[in-house]
Amino acid sequence: MKQEQNTSRGGYLLKQGVVFKYKGKIITNVNLTAASAEWYIAQNLDHRDDFEELGRDYDSFGQTETMK
User: 25-47 pLDDT, tens per residue?
Assistant: First the structure.
């Protein structure tokens, strides 16, 4: 059975079995959005490893957005 693809993920794809909590909801590939993926990565740049595909380049993320 093929699941309907979420078109609002913005190029992000979680690895199989990876889940996280965002705004009180459990996030998987089924309900992943670009906003939730970017929030998750911003919490810890090591979370990039939890994705098969990234919607943007995070190599310079820490240097450009260190203080908010």
Answer: 999 999 999 999 999 999 999 99
